[in-house]
From TrEMBL, chains A, B, C, D, E, F:
Pfam families: CMD (PF02627). This is Carboxymuconolactone decarboxylase family protein. It comes from Levilactobacillus tujiorum. It comes from the Bacteria. Gene3D superfamilies: AhpD-like. Residues 31-115 form the Carboxymuconolactone decarboxylase-like domain. PANTHER family: 4-CARBOXYMUCONOLACTONE DECARBOXYLASE FAMILY PROTEIN, CARBOXYMUCONOLACTONE DECARBOXYLASE-LIKE DOMAIN-CONTAINING PROTEIN. The lineage of its organism: Bacteria, Bacillati, Bacillota, Bacilli, Lactobacillales.
Amino acid sequence: MDRLEKGKNLLNQVDAAAADTVMTSLKDIAPDISQYILEFAFGDIYARPGLTLQQRELVTITALLVKGDTSNQLTVHLNGCLNVGLTPKEIIETCIHCIPYIGFPRVLNAITVAQQVFTSRHITV
Amino acid sequence: MDRLEKGKNLLNQVDAAAADTVMTSLKDIAPDISQYILEFAFGDIYARPGLTLQQRELVTITALLVKGDTSNQLTVHLNGCLNVGLTPKEIIETCIHCIPYIGFPRVLNAITVAQQVFTSRHITV
Amino acid sequence: MDRLEKGKNLLNQVDAAAADTVMTSLKDIAPDISQYILEFAFGDIYARPGLTLQQRELVTITALLVKGDTSNQLTVHLNGCLNVGLTPKEIIETCIHCIPYIGFPRVLNAITVAQQVFTSRHITV
Amino acid sequence: MDRLEKGKNLLNQVDAAAADTVMTSLKDIAPDISQYILEFAFGDIYARPGLTLQQRELVTITALLVKGDTSNQLTVHLNGCLNVGLTPKEIIETCIHCIPYIGFPRVLNAITVAQQVFTSRHITV
Amino acid sequence: MDRLEKGKNLLNQVDAAAADTVMTSLKDIAPDISQYILEFAFGDIYARPGLTLQQRELVTITALLVKGDTSNQLTVHLNGCLNVGLTPKEIIETCIHCIPYIGFPRVLNAITVAQQVFTSRHITV
Amino acid sequence: MDRLEKGKNLLNQVDAAAADTVMTSLKDIAPDISQYILEFAFGDIYARPGLTLQQRELVTITALLVKGDTSNQLTVHLNGCLNVGLTPKEIIETCIHCIPYIGFPRVLNAITVAQQVFTSRHITV
């Protein structure tokens, strides 16, 4: 299986619906970015052994939460967390754990996105 | 057990040596910060159920790596990762996983700190 | 008075209306964050002597402005600034003072939020 | 020609329409910021020899893209890029070039703004 | 008094020694940056009415602390704080106040710089 | 020519000496990161048409300067700028151009690194 196939495969496990939306939106303006996301981010990196998909998604939402100005990407990967089997409780707990390292504002922003994702999936915490 | 005791307990599990160093350095200039680290960061947050200590340390090094200008804190928590049972391989893999979200520079900085921590503990990857 | 009471007391002085909104929005998804905001951010930190509430709010809006991606939190604390007696002129002046340290974009973003807050309170500068 | 005149002149070359909007929005709340943008950012800095206007706009969109939480300013300067003669292809290529240094999320955010700017100018890439 | 004179005047009040060091280091490689620091940062911005020099330095160290990777500039302005009459206690308190907004790591970094500045001035807190 | 070969080729044009140092330092701890830098950052991205190598290095140092905590990477790419034919004057001018977008501190940090790079190459500006 080549990098592109491996990447598509993994992105579909993480968030198939979001993948479609992002790829469609990039199709006309910058299709090469889609290709790099699939080949590099998912085909090279997510495909590596050494961490479970659940660990990878935990690390991903932490990275996005801390970076800030990433609500679109958080939406994708909060769904991704749930899709690979993390519980809503583990997601919220990860956000809370970041408070001492990054402060309340970034965490509150992430919680707002989590709330929208949970609502869209009819999840109550 | 009160918040302070709970916090001391947990910080000792994560990195007892570093705890001593940080607390000593703060003793004269800002001892209240030590207290907040123990009571709030460790006594309130680390003490929560919902994530294992290994998950918490994985999230912590991700947060520090992404934030940047945190090499002192990364030294503490890369040691913390090893102390709570994460493998050097999982640590390196976590750094690599962040490349697509944050780019190479922050990851290379974290790898440099990891190298120093591993060397100080006679670990070869 | 315990930490929670002290915190509620202080948050009410800073921005009672915003407090309600934030706490309500966190009630179902992450009520513990509300508790930490009250107990730690306000009960421990704001309650300390050593700086006036006006100085604290000046420092707070600077921190939020510089951090970026904090428009919700800036709305709360620009109102907070006015509630503890800072003048609109001092607020604008604080934003302007940050230009050499952080550049124009973050300052322009903060001014946009300030404009909305001032309008909602029928303030003309 | 004084700094203010030089600045107005240059901002008009970069993005006359946006200049009007920004200046109007600042007129009542913080007119001095408009003056500093004109005198310092454009009259002092853009007016310097040593880089072409095209190089300056390339550097500007990179700075804004990397900083994050700058979609308003990116809108101004993506238009500015086109106004000083950079091609849509060069703009997209600049965004793509930043992926290894800053990761995908900031680049995807910038591409979203570029898409809006290109659409508003009936540009197809 | 022109902008340059006004700026020199104000920078001397804030930190005359540091001013010399910075200006000397820029003299051969980028003397124009010295000029902009004097004319714009100090001659235009610090010279404005509306905030006291003490308020300006409080805002400045907050901005630098939050931004990160600014230990050189923090050294200048922690000295500046003391030179314009802020007490060591107010400086430490400002750092502590930022914990809920930015987390512990940036605050600990600033405290380390404060410790060096206080030691160099034989100040004990 | 495959991605790895293309990447090695390009990195050698940008900064052969630095490449060696980085790759050697990663060899034992995380050799896969070297591979990704060569294959993805240089083999995929730098190898693209659409921008000249000079434009790419201009964009790179801007990205690094704005991000902060990147002095090691700035050392590599300030050398890279010179290696692909940018002049010291263009480098300094790029730093100066960023002042209005990011403020003085990040620019002063970059100038400090530039000074070291220029000195090591016996360049006087």
